[in-house]
Amino acid sequence: MSFIETVLQENARLCADIRAMPFNRALADGSLPQAVFQHYIIQDAHYLEGFARALARAAAGAPDAESVAQLAGSGAGAIAVERQLHGHYMALFGVDAQTFAATPPSPACEHYASFLLATAATRGVGEAVAALLPCFWVYRDVGNAIQATASADNPYRAWIDTYAGEDFDAAVTRMCALADRLAEAASPPEQARMRAAFAKSTLLEWMFWDSAWRLGAWPDTAATPPQMKGDPS
To answer: In this entry, which stretches build a coiled coil (predicted)?
Structure first.
């Protein structure tokens, strides 16, 4: 089997779990509360900045000009999505620049983006691409699943159409092909690290969606200091 076929088989259950998450079920039927989606788009905008930076770092280590152009172009595309799609929904839901700036990345968002950046900065390009790939694959997978059941007047139709659209489908297909090429040229230990990176990012995708549903955020230590282990209070 190819690298893509292998990792999709290994992570099939987790991908199915992501499609069935409460956030994505509510997104599909249009019942997702606006406050939850508002929280999600703020976090996704934070994430996409880190994602684009990781793509740029991976591009610097790509083995040929075609791969450099593809990874750099994907990074530019991530920023374009953030500005266009998120700009649309932030304006629709009243998220101004001050609100966005005052809302830090959630623990799940920061963990995911930091993992991608660290992998792209300290590992080989194959491992970096494998870590970046689940964001492409999972969003297409979720977008296609939702589009199959969403009504035409779904309030999140712009989001659905973006990730179930032909342009995004083509970008995912190109990224999968790049991962396969890099895996073919990799040694068995490198291939194993690529598979582990894909699996970890897929799990971090699940954590990001779960955090979005729960409105995940850092604890307000100024209001209620967290109780430390061994604290008698």
So the answer is: none
8 A C-beta contact, residue 70 and residue 178:
yes
* Cβ contacts of 115-120, under 8 Å, gap ≥ 24: 115/200, 115/201, 115/204, 116/50, 116/51, 116/54, 116/201, 117/50, 117/53, 117/54, 117/57, 119/54, 119/197, 120/53, 120/54, 120/55, 120/57, 120/58, 120/61
Task: Tell me the CATH architecture of domain 3-214.
Answer: Up-down Bundle (1.20)
| Encoded tokens for 190 | 């490198």
Distance from C-alpha of 126 to C-alpha of 220, rounded to nearest angstrom: 39
Tens of pLDDT along the chain (233 residues)?
999 999 999 999 999 999 999 999 999 999 999 999 999 999 998 999 999 999 999 999 998 998 898 998 887 777 777 677 777 878 887 788 888 889 999 999 999 999 999 999 999 999 999 999 999 999 999 999 999 999 999 999 989 998 999 988 999 999 999 999 999 999 999 999 999 999 999 999 999 999 999 999 999 876 655 565 555 54
Tokens of 109: 């968002």
Distances (CA, A) of 74 to 8, 10, 158, 159, 163: 21, 25, 20, 18, 14
Every domain of the chain and the residues it spans: 3-214
